[in-house]
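Example record used in the benchmark description.
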Amino acid sequence: MQRKAREPAMMPREIRRQPGSDRAGAQTVPETAAGISKRAVKPAGDGTGGAAAARDSQPERAPDTDSGIHQTLDHATQVWLSRFTHGLSPAAVMGAWFDWATHMAAAPGRQLRLAEKAAEKTGKYMRYAIECANSSEPAHRCIEPLPQDRRFSDDAWQVKPFNLIHQGFLLQQQWWHNVVTGVPGVSAQHERELQFMTRQMLDVFSPSNFLLTNPEVLRKTRNTAGQNLLHGMQHLMEDARNVMSGQSPAELDDFRPGRDVATAEGKVVYRNRLIELIQYAPLTQTVRPEPILIVPAWIMKYYILDLSPRNSMVRYLLEQGHTVFMISWKNPDAGDRDLTLDDYRRLGIMEALEVIGEILPDRRIQSVGYCLGGTLLAIAAAAMARDGDDRLGTISLLASQVDFTEPGELQLFINESQLAFLDSVMWRQGYLDTTQMAGAFQMLRSNDLVWSRVVRDYLMGDRGPMFDLMAWNADATRMPYRMHSEYLRKLYLNNDLVEGRFRVEGRTVHLSDIRVPIFAVGTLSDHVAPWKSVFKIDMLSDTDVTFALTSGGHNAGIVSKPGHPRRSFRVATRKEADLHVDAETWVEKTPERDGSWWTAWADWLAAHAGKPVAPPRMGRGAPVADAPGTYVFQK
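Model output (structure tokens):
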């Protein structure tokens, strides 16, 4: 539903609404027996704009002239293949290897150089072995592990024969890296894919993964008389039982939303078929007049930003005197297969803004987006700026990308062949399953997320206690077929948003139209949204941009409450009239600070807010439910 645009604001606090919105004075939407809004998903805009938007929301693919039975046969075949390839397209894999093989066959000089490297490494290894045999002291390593490789850091790896075993493995790993890189003519995408695949294969055969070649495991076995292996077998059987039965680990019961996590008090003040909007109860006597709306990613549950009370961004903002609203996304099922990316914008962000405007009329909103939620927020903000809708007062983008030319190792899975294969996998069930997403992310960091766990849980027999962030990570959600296909094609594959092709309601949007201040956060160890990619918002916008670079990864770097040990960050502001600098220059010029970036962000939010006032009412009438709502419990 939409309301007509107002005339340009004449009073200082008047705020123009989104063109075409008619929600002024609307009452709470009646709920069905299932608790879902009766509001139907409909095309946005008027007849012309809506039709254009509907056409634009379709994945951009060549017209398909095959009949339904032919499509079904193609999809069914690829679904069957996916069971053996773990969702990877065989054509994409074979294409990378064929590209490498054909160019390698036509490069005898490269082949000769690889043979020379093999001889050099063999000679280096033999000299190291002789030095080890002739000395009682540990010999100097002939090859050092990469800085992020912690598999061989224990002193036990310097004792014979384990020093020879792990040094031989590292030399082979280095040689295989030389094999698949630097071959003239091989495309950059295929070279990255080959590096990834060879690393995955080599990681399987690392000596750290096996009982007889891991001195740390052998030491633990001696010290415990084999009890570690017994405990490891119990862990293995427990995990296998959970996988086969579809059950969650028992430890997750200690982190139930509303009781142990997602505990900030509040009310669900609005619900539709896609979101529940939570308004949190104030924790201070007065609050800033501008409310905060948080748009989390829909790939996981919202409560990463409201974990345990000691680790909650929501609670921190409430303590700083802010009124906070949070979107809680529905966990989609097969019935939601045709939800589009624009449905997430309209039913998510735009509906939330309308409801907040009814609770707090004529207030600008400080918007916050995390991960995919930040990308969607940037799209919505650009469309609002284009249409003269100035309800947003500030925008904060936390580990969110808008330019996808350098999306990190996720780009290994983004090409036409892989997306067509993924479409077939999603076609059968109507969504991308949680296990399929988790598997892709684990493959990106197999040493840290797969093999280190195998060694710790099954060989060492140690299983660390579950904590809030780990429990949240296990509480994944699905993604609708159509929306996910659009998202990957329009953003990751085609990069339409920054190249001027992304359309909202039939017309293109441009990030440079955004004029409100932006606070962007990148994390140093982010494998999902690399910080240099996040930093590009500074070069793509024509407004004041404050960028913060913090220690940690995609999740732990964002959830970094003050007082957390070993945290540091850099932060600097570029005014609209200032010259742009590249990411490396920014790091050189920006001093590092100890502590959490939350404090700098809180100062920034306060600087763009008015003087404190009395807290607002809770909702527009009778609340829909108590926080954390119902969508957060959907499995």
